[in-house]
Write a sequence for this structure.
């Protein structure tokens, strides 16, 4: 009998089997006293062993990992599965009550955010958020107090001026429509706009500027044959699909969207965007194609950092390469989302090792910090040292895997000394499988 291999079930992609709670974690170095809150990370961690030949990385049950930091101490680490009905039943627990959308009950596995004093595990493609307690136990699915009409996204953008969340969500059942929503600082949806796109498209992320919400209408589309064959994530590359970017005036309606053609590609994650006179600048990680040859995960060549300059008057786009190195999971200081900015961070995939990269977009330079022992090119989260600190005055937090010890650490780097000795390393009691996204949630926002 032939054994089927699936890279997303091996090594540090493989799920961990246990939920643990450990207090007073070991720390090398000195944690900044200014850090008071939780570092949270979400990712797929299938509870039951999946079929390797069909398992898609995006479909594993969500597991949220958390590290609580206060007064220079790492007070606890804990990891918890998100209790969808399926997960709760498998654990012989009561199903958590709450409104699901279109029977799309799913253990949200892609991101975890704090908003309006609450914690939400979030995912795309039609499912609603799951609310969690401060200690990461599941409360239940949420429709933001009855104001969210459908599913949500894995990537809302928080406007740093208003504190509101802007999102573009998709669901195959909406056909050629995606939905733009704005969630106010109280946690209620205050605006909904249905936007017509080219088909039942996958929109993993969006961008935000001070003037526009940005929609990525790119050639990864719901595939009926894949869905009928049982694929849990039935979105595939469609070479005939028109690749374009839409700009929606933030105060406008669906009729106000302007569309700009781009070269066929796919974008999971933009780094940032901003208005620049008669242009809108989009810095994105561009994949030449996605889910074409390899339908079970993102493995279709080298993703590169690109700049798209949209000329509002001419209706054209200038595309230029900012960095040739393979990279993903771009992040910026959340205080500059939608604004002109200087620094961005990403995980890089070099020929023989993984690394973290700090980009200086003004100087068009970068610093590379290589990671030892198969450390994995994980997402970096910037935390400012104070509300009025400079853009790189603070710390970069990143989870890394140590294959020699088969466990994970939280790196706390001084952003202004990116390649220097870490400010601190928090040693976790187990490994955190390679996953997706997370955030620093200060207790002031918890």
């Amino acid at each position: 009998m032939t054994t089927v291999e699936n890279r997303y079930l091996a090594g540090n992609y493989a799920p961990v089997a246990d939920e643990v709670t450990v207090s007073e974690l070991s720390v090398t170095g000195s944690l900044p006293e200014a850090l008071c809150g939780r570092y949270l990370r979400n990712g797929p961690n299938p509870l039951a062993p999946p079929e390797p030949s069909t398992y898609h990385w995006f479909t594993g049950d969500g597991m949220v990992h958390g590290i609580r930091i206060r007064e220079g101490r790492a007070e606890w680490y804990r990891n918890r599965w998100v209790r969808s009905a399926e997960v709760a039943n498998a654990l012989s627990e009561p199903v958590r009550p709450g409104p699901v959308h279109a029977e799309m009950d799913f253990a949200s596995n892609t991101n975890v955010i704090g908003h309006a004093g609450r914690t939400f595990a979030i995912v795309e493609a039609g499912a609603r958020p799951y609310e969690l307690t401060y200690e990461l136990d599941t409360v239940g699915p949420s429709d933001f107090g009855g104001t969210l009409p459908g599913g949500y996204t894995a990537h809302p953008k928080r406007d740093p001026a208003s504190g509101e969340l802007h999102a573009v969500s998709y669901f195959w059942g909406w056909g050629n429509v995606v939905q733009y929503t704005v969630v106010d600082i109280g946690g209620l949806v205050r605006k909904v706009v249905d936007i017509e796109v080219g088909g039942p498209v996958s929109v993993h992320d969006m961008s935000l500027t001070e003037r526009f919400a940005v929609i990525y209408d790119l050639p990864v589309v719901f595939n009926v044959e894949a869905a009928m064959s049982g694929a849990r994530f039935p979105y595939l590359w469609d070479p005939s699909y028109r690749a374009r970017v839409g700009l929606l005036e933030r105060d406008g309606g669906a009729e106000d969207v302007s569309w700009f053609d781009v070269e066929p590609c796919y974008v999971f994650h933009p780094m940032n965007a901003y208005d620049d006179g008669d242009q809108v600048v989009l810095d994105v990680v561009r994949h030449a194609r996605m889910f074409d040859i390899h339908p079970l995960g993102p493995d279709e060549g080298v993703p590169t950092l690109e700049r798209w300059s949209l000329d509002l008057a001419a209706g054209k786009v200038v595309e230029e390469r900012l960095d040739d190195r393979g990279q993903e999971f771009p992040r910026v200081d959340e205080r500059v989302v939608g604004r002109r900015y200087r620094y961005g961070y990403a995980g890089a995939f070099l020929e023989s090792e993984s690394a973290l990269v700090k980009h200086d977009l003004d100087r068009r330079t970068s610093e590379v910090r290589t990671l030892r022992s198969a450390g994995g090119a994980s997402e970096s989260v910037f935390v400012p040292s104070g509300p009025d600190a400079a853009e790189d005055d603070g710390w970069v937090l990143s989870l890394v895997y140590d294959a020699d010890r088969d466990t994970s650490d939280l790196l706390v780097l001084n952003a202004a000394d990116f390649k220097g000795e870490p400010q601190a390393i928090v040693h976790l009691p187990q490994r955190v499988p390679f996953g997706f996204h997370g955030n620093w949630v200060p207790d002031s926002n918890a």
User: Anything to note?
Assistant: Residues 78 and 336 are 31 Å apart (CA to CA). The chain has a mean pLDDT of 96. The chain has one domain: 7-445.
